[in-house]
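Worked example (supplementary).
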Amino acid sequence: MPDLYIFKAAIGMCDPIALQNHNVAIHYVQNTYWRRVDFLEAIPEFQCIDLGAVLANNQSGRVNVVNLEMADNEFGIFRWYPIEDVQILFNHPAGVSKYQLRNLQVPVDAAILFNDPNLVSTEIGVWEDNRPAMVAVNGHAFPMPASRVRALGYRFHTIDPLPISPEEKRAIAQVKAESPNNQRLKDDALMEIALQEGRLPVTHIWCSGRAMGD
Amino acid sequence: MLITTDKIGVRITGPVVNLALAGIANSAVVFSIPILVGVLIGTKSAVIKKVTLFNNGAGNTQVIIGTGLGAALFVPLLPALDSLNGLMDPYGPNTDLPEVEAYADITAYPVALLAGTSIDIVLEILIRG
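After joint prediction of all chains, the assembly is encoded as:
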Protein backbone atom coordinates (compact mmCIF):
# COMPACT_ATOMS: atom_id res chain seq x y z
CA MET A 1 0.00 0.00 0.00
CA PRO A 2 1.58 3.29 -1.02
CA ASP A 3 1.66 6.29 1.25
CA LEU A 4 -1.17 8.53 0.13
CA TYR A 5 -0.84 12.11 1.24
CA ILE A 6 -0.07 15.50 -0.22
CA PHE A 7 3.34 17.19 -0.33
CA LYS A 8 5.39 14.05 -0.85
CA ALA A 9 9.09 14.73 -1.39
CA ALA A 10 10.41 11.47 -2.79
CA ILE A 11 13.37 12.18 -5.02
CA GLY A 12 12.38 13.47 -8.41
CA MET A 13 8.73 12.67 -8.07
CA CYS A 14 5.29 14.17 -7.94
CA ASP A 15 3.32 11.16 -6.75
CA PRO A 16 -0.43 10.61 -7.07
CA ILE A 17 -2.12 11.26 -3.74
CA ALA A 18 -4.88 8.69 -4.28
CA LEU A 19 -5.28 5.59 -6.42
CA GLN A 20 -8.19 3.73 -8.00
CA ASN A 21 -11.13 3.28 -5.55
CA HIS A 22 -9.50 5.39 -2.85
CA ASN A 23 -11.61 7.83 -0.88
CA VAL A 24 -10.74 11.52 -0.88
CA ALA A 25 -11.98 14.55 1.04
CA ILE A 26 -11.69 17.60 -1.17
CA HIS A 27 -11.59 20.81 0.83
CA TYR A 28 -12.45 23.95 -1.08
CA VAL A 29 -12.56 27.13 1.04
CA GLN A 30 -15.22 26.20 3.63
CA ASN A 31 -16.69 23.23 1.75
CA THR A 32 -15.76 19.56 1.91
CA TYR A 33 -16.61 17.07 -0.84
CA TRP A 34 -16.36 13.37 -0.01
CA ARG A 35 -15.55 11.47 -3.18
CA ARG A 36 -14.02 8.27 -4.51
CA VAL A 37 -11.38 8.17 -7.25
CA ASP A 38 -12.39 6.03 -10.23
CA PHE A 39 -9.78 7.19 -12.75
CA LEU A 40 -6.42 8.89 -12.61
CA GLU A 41 -3.72 9.77 -15.06
CA ALA A 42 -0.44 11.65 -15.04
CA ILE A 43 -0.21 15.09 -16.61
CA PRO A 44 3.27 15.58 -18.07
CA GLU A 45 5.04 18.89 -17.69
CA PHE A 46 3.50 21.58 -19.88
CA GLN A 47 3.39 25.34 -20.22
CA CYS A 48 0.17 26.24 -18.43
CA ILE A 49 0.22 29.99 -18.97
CA ASP A 50 2.17 32.91 -20.36
CA LEU A 51 1.27 35.93 -18.27
CA GLY A 52 2.79 38.05 -21.01
CA ALA A 53 5.25 40.91 -21.09
CA VAL A 54 5.70 42.86 -17.86
CA LEU A 55 7.11 46.39 -17.79
CA ALA A 56 10.26 47.19 -15.80
CA ASN A 57 9.63 47.33 -12.04
CA ASN A 58 6.00 46.49 -12.56
CA GLN A 59 3.54 43.64 -12.33
CA SER A 60 0.97 42.01 -14.56
CA GLY A 61 -2.73 41.91 -13.89
CA ARG A 62 -4.17 38.88 -12.11
CA VAL A 63 -4.93 36.24 -14.71
CA ASN A 64 -6.99 33.07 -14.22
CA VAL A 65 -4.97 30.00 -15.18
CA VAL A 66 -7.75 28.26 -17.05
CA ASN A 67 -5.41 25.53 -18.25
CA LEU A 68 -5.10 24.26 -14.69
CA GLU A 69 -8.88 24.04 -14.24
CA MET A 70 -10.52 20.61 -14.24
CA ALA A 71 -13.74 19.17 -15.64
CA ASP A 72 -16.81 18.46 -13.47
CA ASN A 73 -16.21 15.85 -10.74
CA GLU A 74 -12.46 16.04 -11.27
CA PHE A 75 -9.58 17.42 -9.31
CA GLY A 76 -5.94 17.90 -10.21
CA ILE A 77 -2.71 17.97 -8.25
CA PHE A 78 -0.01 20.20 -9.73
CA ARG A 79 3.48 21.38 -9.04
CA TRP A 80 4.70 24.36 -11.01
CA TYR A 81 7.48 26.89 -11.58
CA PRO A 82 8.13 30.01 -13.67
CA ILE A 83 10.87 29.91 -16.29
CA GLU A 84 11.47 33.65 -16.52
CA ASP A 85 13.10 35.63 -13.74
CA VAL A 86 9.80 36.97 -12.45
CA GLN A 87 8.11 36.39 -9.12
CA ILE A 88 4.69 34.75 -9.29
CA LEU A 89 1.97 35.50 -6.75
CA PHE A 90 -0.52 32.64 -6.69
CA ASN A 91 -4.18 33.03 -5.79
CA HIS A 92 -6.60 30.18 -5.35
CA PRO A 93 -9.43 30.83 -5.99
CA ALA A 94 -8.74 34.12 -7.71
CA GLY A 95 -9.73 36.24 -4.70
CA VAL A 96 -7.80 34.30 -2.05
CA SER A 97 -4.03 34.50 -1.77
CA LYS A 98 -2.06 31.27 -1.56
CA TYR A 99 1.20 30.74 0.36
CA GLN A 100 -0.05 33.38 2.78
CA LEU A 101 1.78 34.33 5.96
CA ARG A 102 0.51 36.91 8.39
CA ASN A 103 2.40 39.77 6.77
CA LEU A 104 3.41 38.41 3.40
CA GLN A 105 2.11 36.50 0.44
CA VAL A 106 5.15 34.40 -0.45
CA PRO A 107 6.03 34.62 -4.16
CA VAL A 108 7.58 31.84 -6.24
CA ASP A 109 10.44 32.53 -8.62
CA ALA A 110 12.62 30.39 -10.87
CA ALA A 111 15.12 29.85 -8.03
CA ILE A 112 12.62 27.32 -6.67
CA LEU A 113 14.25 24.86 -9.08
CA PHE A 114 17.51 25.09 -7.14
CA ASN A 115 16.14 25.34 -3.62
CA ASP A 116 13.25 22.89 -3.88
CA PRO A 117 14.04 20.66 -6.87
CA ASN A 118 10.99 18.45 -6.30
CA LEU A 119 8.79 21.58 -6.29
CA VAL A 120 7.00 20.06 -3.32
CA SER A 121 6.36 23.47 -1.76
CA THR A 122 4.45 24.59 -4.84
CA GLU A 123 2.00 21.68 -4.80
CA ILE A 124 -1.61 22.73 -5.27
CA GLY A 125 -4.93 20.97 -5.71
CA VAL A 126 -7.58 22.24 -8.12
CA TRP A 127 -11.21 21.16 -7.71
CA GLU A 128 -13.25 21.46 -10.90
CA ASP A 129 -13.13 24.97 -12.44
CA ASN A 130 -12.30 26.83 -9.27
CA ARG A 131 -10.09 29.53 -10.69
CA PRO A 132 -6.41 29.34 -9.84
CA ALA A 133 -4.89 32.72 -10.75
CA MET A 134 -1.43 34.24 -11.02
CA VAL A 135 0.27 37.62 -11.02
CA ALA A 136 3.79 38.11 -12.42
CA VAL A 137 6.08 40.64 -10.75
CA ASN A 138 9.10 41.95 -12.70
CA GLY A 139 11.68 43.49 -10.39
CA HIS A 140 14.18 44.15 -13.15
CA ALA A 141 14.95 47.59 -14.53
CA PHE A 142 14.16 46.27 -18.01
CA PRO A 143 10.92 44.86 -19.42
CA MET A 144 10.40 41.09 -19.25
CA PRO A 145 9.23 39.91 -22.68
CA ALA A 146 7.27 36.93 -21.31
CA SER A 147 6.25 35.36 -17.99
CA ARG A 148 5.81 31.67 -18.63
CA VAL A 149 4.84 29.05 -16.07
CA ARG A 150 5.20 25.29 -16.44
CA ALA A 151 3.32 22.67 -14.44
CA LEU A 152 3.01 18.92 -14.07
CA GLY A 153 0.90 16.63 -11.95
CA TYR A 154 -2.05 14.26 -11.92
CA ARG A 155 -5.68 14.30 -12.95
CA PHE A 156 -8.29 12.45 -10.87
CA HIS A 157 -11.89 11.70 -11.85
CA THR A 158 -14.19 11.06 -8.91
CA ILE A 159 -17.62 9.57 -8.18
CA ASP A 160 -19.93 9.43 -5.16
CA PRO A 161 -18.33 7.29 -2.44
CA LEU A 162 -20.80 4.43 -2.41
CA PRO A 163 -19.68 1.48 -0.27
CA ILE A 164 -18.00 -1.25 -2.28
CA SER A 165 -15.63 -3.06 0.05
CA PRO A 166 -16.67 -5.37 2.94
CA GLU A 167 -14.88 -2.97 5.30
CA GLU A 168 -16.98 -0.05 4.07
CA LYS A 169 -20.21 -2.03 4.24
CA ARG A 170 -19.42 -3.01 7.82
CA ALA A 171 -18.65 0.62 8.74
CA ILE A 172 -21.97 1.79 7.33
CA ALA A 173 -23.89 -0.94 9.10
CA GLN A 174 -22.23 0.18 12.31
CA VAL A 175 -23.18 3.83 11.75
CA LYS A 176 -26.79 2.73 11.13
CA ALA A 177 -26.87 0.59 14.23
CA GLU A 178 -25.40 3.27 16.48
CA SER A 179 -27.71 6.04 15.36
CA PRO A 180 -31.33 5.17 14.61
CA ASN A 181 -31.91 8.69 13.26
CA ASN A 182 -29.67 7.84 10.33
CA GLN A 183 -31.84 4.97 9.19
CA ARG A 184 -33.53 6.97 6.47
CA LEU A 185 -30.29 8.22 4.95
CA LYS A 186 -29.05 6.71 1.73
CA ASP A 187 -25.82 4.77 1.47
CA ASP A 188 -23.83 7.68 0.02
CA ALA A 189 -24.84 9.94 2.92
CA LEU A 190 -23.98 7.22 5.44
CA MET A 191 -20.68 6.74 3.67
CA GLU A 192 -19.93 10.43 4.14
CA ILE A 193 -20.66 10.12 7.84
CA ALA A 194 -18.37 7.09 8.10
CA LEU A 195 -15.60 9.02 6.34
CA GLN A 196 -16.16 12.16 8.44
CA GLU A 197 -16.00 10.15 11.63
CA GLY A 198 -12.71 8.56 10.61
CA ARG A 199 -14.10 5.04 10.42
CA LEU A 200 -12.63 4.60 6.94
CA PRO A 201 -9.33 5.69 5.37
CA VAL A 202 -9.49 8.90 3.36
CA THR A 203 -6.94 11.31 1.85
CA HIS A 204 -7.56 14.98 2.53
CA ILE A 205 -6.74 17.47 -0.20
CA TRP A 206 -6.82 21.25 0.03
CA CYS A 207 -7.97 22.70 -3.27
CA SER A 208 -7.84 26.38 -2.31
CA GLY A 209 -6.10 28.87 -0.10
CA ARG A 210 -7.86 30.34 2.90
CA ALA A 211 -8.34 33.98 3.75
CA MET A 212 -6.74 35.25 6.96
CA GLY A 213 -9.03 34.68 9.93
CA ASP A 214 -11.45 32.63 7.87
CA MET B 1 11.70 17.09 -12.07
CA LEU B 2 14.89 16.73 -10.07
CA ILE B 3 17.37 19.53 -10.77
CA THR B 4 16.27 21.02 -14.02
CA THR B 5 19.08 23.56 -14.11
CA ASP B 6 20.72 21.82 -17.04
CA LYS B 7 17.46 20.63 -18.52
CA ILE B 8 15.67 23.86 -19.16
CA GLY B 9 15.36 23.41 -22.89
CA VAL B 10 16.22 21.58 -26.06
CA ARG B 11 19.31 22.43 -28.10
CA ILE B 12 18.99 22.70 -31.84
CA THR B 13 21.15 24.05 -34.66
CA GLY B 14 19.68 26.45 -37.16
CA PRO B 15 20.25 26.36 -40.91
CA VAL B 16 23.31 27.79 -42.65
CA VAL B 17 22.21 31.21 -43.86
CA ASN B 18 24.17 33.08 -46.48
CA LEU B 19 24.30 36.84 -45.87
CA ALA B 20 25.13 38.31 -49.25
CA LEU B 21 23.88 41.87 -48.69
CA ALA B 22 25.31 44.31 -46.16
CA GLY B 23 23.58 46.87 -44.00
CA ILE B 24 20.70 46.94 -41.56
CA ALA B 25 18.20 47.32 -44.40
CA ASN B 26 19.25 43.86 -45.60
CA SER B 27 18.96 42.09 -42.25
CA ALA B 28 17.75 38.52 -42.71
CA VAL B 29 16.20 35.84 -40.52
CA VAL B 30 18.89 33.40 -39.38
CA PHE B 31 16.79 31.42 -36.86
CA SER B 32 13.00 31.11 -36.64
CA ILE B 33 11.24 30.49 -33.32
CA PRO B 34 9.02 27.40 -33.64
CA ILE B 35 5.33 28.25 -33.70
CA LEU B 36 2.35 25.95 -33.97
CA VAL B 37 -0.60 28.22 -33.38
CA GLY B 38 -3.42 26.69 -31.37
CA VAL B 39 -1.31 23.84 -30.06
CA LEU B 40 1.57 25.44 -28.23
CA ILE B 41 0.73 27.66 -25.30
CA GLY B 42 2.58 30.87 -24.73
CA THR B 43 5.85 31.78 -26.23
CA LYS B 44 8.89 29.79 -27.18
CA SER B 45 12.16 31.63 -26.83
CA ALA B 46 15.66 31.03 -28.17
CA VAL B 47 18.91 31.34 -26.23
CA ILE B 48 22.00 31.78 -28.38
CA LYS B 49 24.62 29.26 -27.27
CA LYS B 50 27.04 29.39 -30.20
CA VAL B 51 27.55 31.47 -33.35
CA THR B 52 29.72 30.38 -36.26
CA LEU B 53 30.58 32.82 -39.01
CA PHE B 54 32.39 31.91 -42.22
CA ASN B 55 33.76 34.80 -44.19
CA ASN B 56 33.73 34.12 -47.94
CA GLY B 57 36.45 36.65 -48.81
CA ALA B 58 34.24 39.49 -47.66
CA GLY B 59 37.09 41.48 -46.08
CA ASN B 60 37.50 42.17 -42.37
CA THR B 61 34.05 43.17 -41.21
CA GLN B 62 31.45 42.61 -38.50
CA VAL B 63 28.09 40.88 -38.16
CA ILE B 64 25.28 42.24 -35.99
CA ILE B 65 22.78 39.75 -34.51
CA GLY B 66 19.40 40.86 -33.19
CA THR B 67 15.67 40.63 -33.77
CA GLY B 68 13.46 42.41 -36.27
CA LEU B 69 13.97 43.20 -39.93
CA GLY B 70 14.99 46.59 -41.32
CA ALA B 71 16.20 49.80 -39.73
CA ALA B 72 12.91 50.56 -38.02
CA LEU B 73 12.52 47.22 -36.25
CA PHE B 74 16.01 45.76 -35.81
CA VAL B 75 17.12 45.53 -32.16
CA PRO B 76 20.60 44.12 -31.50
CA LEU B 77 20.98 41.26 -29.05
CA LEU B 78 24.78 41.27 -29.00
CA PRO B 79 27.58 43.71 -29.76
CA ALA B 80 29.09 43.42 -33.23
CA LEU B 81 30.94 40.14 -33.83
CA ASP B 82 34.16 40.32 -35.82
CA SER B 83 34.33 38.35 -39.08
CA LEU B 84 37.85 38.13 -40.46
CA ASN B 85 38.59 37.89 -44.15
CA GLY B 86 38.49 34.31 -45.39
CA LEU B 87 38.32 32.78 -41.92
CA MET B 88 35.82 30.95 -39.77
CA ASP B 89 34.96 32.76 -36.54
CA PRO B 90 33.43 30.61 -33.82
CA TYR B 91 31.74 32.29 -30.84
CA GLY B 92 30.48 30.31 -27.89
CA PRO B 93 31.15 29.38 -24.28
CA ASN B 94 34.93 29.41 -24.90
CA THR B 95 34.71 33.01 -26.07
CA ASP B 96 32.39 33.97 -23.21
CA LEU B 97 29.55 34.74 -25.59
CA PRO B 98 26.65 36.03 -23.46
CA GLU B 99 23.70 33.65 -23.72
CA VAL B 100 21.17 36.24 -24.79
CA GLU B 101 17.52 35.19 -25.14
CA ALA B 102 15.32 36.15 -28.07
CA TYR B 103 11.53 36.06 -27.96
CA ALA B 104 11.20 36.59 -31.73
CA ASP B 105 12.96 35.31 -34.84
CA ILE B 106 16.69 36.02 -34.73
CA THR B 107 18.00 38.21 -37.54
CA ALA B 108 21.48 39.34 -38.63
CA TYR B 109 23.31 41.47 -41.13
CA PRO B 110 26.95 42.16 -42.10
CA VAL B 111 28.13 45.72 -41.54
CA ALA B 112 30.00 45.70 -44.88
CA LEU B 113 30.95 43.24 -47.62
CA LEU B 114 33.39 43.37 -50.51
CA ALA B 115 31.53 43.28 -53.81
CA GLY B 116 30.29 39.82 -54.80
CA THR B 117 31.14 38.17 -51.48
CA SER B 118 29.15 36.94 -48.49
CA ILE B 119 29.23 35.57 -44.94
CA ASP B 120 27.70 32.28 -43.86
CA ILE B 121 26.19 32.13 -40.38
CA VAL B 122 24.96 29.25 -38.22
CA LEU B 123 23.49 29.49 -34.70
CA GLU B 124 23.25 26.82 -32.05
CA ILE B 125 20.16 27.55 -30.01
CA LEU B 126 18.61 26.45 -26.73
CA ILE B 127 14.83 26.47 -27.11
CA ARG B 128 12.90 27.37 -23.92
CA GLY B 129 9.22 27.38 -23.11
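Two points are worth noting when inspecting this output. Strands of chain A lie at 23-28, 31-50, 58-59, 63-64, 74-82, 87-91, 124-127, 133-138, 148-159, 203-206. The first helix of chain A runs from residue 112 to 115.
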